[in-house]
Amino acid sequence: MSLSKQQIQTLVGLIAATESDDLSCEDCFGRIGEFAEKSLEGRELSEGMQLIQRHLEQCPCCSEEYKALIEALQEINVEQV
Ligand SMILES: [Zn+2]
Questions:
Q1: How many A from CA of 31 to the centre of ligand 1?
Q2: How many domains does the chain have?
C-alpha cells in the first residue's frame, strides 16, 4: 500500500495533533528527572509517568535528554556502590 501525499499530510497532522494533546516538552522536561529515577528503579509507573513515557516515544528531542539523564544517573549509582 502506498500513501498519497494527501494521506501523508493527514497522518502528519494527526501525529502533530496527538503531540499537542499530550504533554508539552516543557511539562516533560519538568518531570523527566522523576521519570528517569523511577524507571531506573524499575518501579511501576503512575499515570503521570506513563504520559512522560509516551511523550519520550514521540519526541526525539526529549528522548535524547532522557538518555543523557539515564547515563548520568547510572554513573552516580556506580559511584555510590
Ligand atoms: Zn518533547
A1: 11
A2: 1
